[in-house]
Amino acid sequence: MSDEAEVLTRREGAAGVIILNRPKALNALTHGMVTAMHAALGAWATDPAVTRILVKGAGERAFSAGGDIRAIHDLGRAGRKEEALAFFRDEYILNRAIKRYPKPYIALIDGIVMGGGVGVSLHGGYRVAGEKYAFAMPEVGIGFFPDVGGTYALPRLPHHAGRYLALTGQRIGRGDGRALGLVTHAAASADLAAIEAALIAGAPIDETLAQFAAPAEEAPLLGQKDTIDRIFAKASLAEVFAALEADGGAFAAKTLAGMRGKCPMSMALSLEQMRRGATLSFEDAMTTEMRIVTRILDGTDFYEGVRAVIIDKDQAPRWQPDSISGVDPGAVERYFAPLPNDLTF
Question: What CATH architecture applies to the domain 7-334?
Answer without folding.
Answer: Alpha-Beta Complex (3.90)
